[in-house]
Structure prediction request, 114 residues.
Amino acid sequence: MGHPTEDILYGLCQSSVRNYLNNVAVGKPIVSPVVFQGGVAFNQGIVRAFEEELETEIIVPPPHRSEGSRWSSASSARRDGAQARRENNIQGLRSKLISTLQLFLRVRGLSQSM
Prediction:
């Protein structure tokens, strides 16, 4: 009875990708080659969901974590202490996903406005 855990988790990945593309990247062209960097690039479900949704291969370079970490660290340094504390909750996880996906668009040469 019910659905396998893998199916449920992949459904969440698909939902996250569709939400990002429909709310953040809306109206912005995303064309091949697509490079995905940052910690979220470790999530094979997110990468697969992007590949399926964009109908193109997603390139995850070997040092993908370090580039995203550098950008994230620079971004975090600009935040005040109260903001950094707020990001320790579930909203912080959402914020980090969005930051990584913003980097994804920046790597593609697309501007990001939120």
In short: Confidence is low (pLDDT under 50) at residues 68-75.
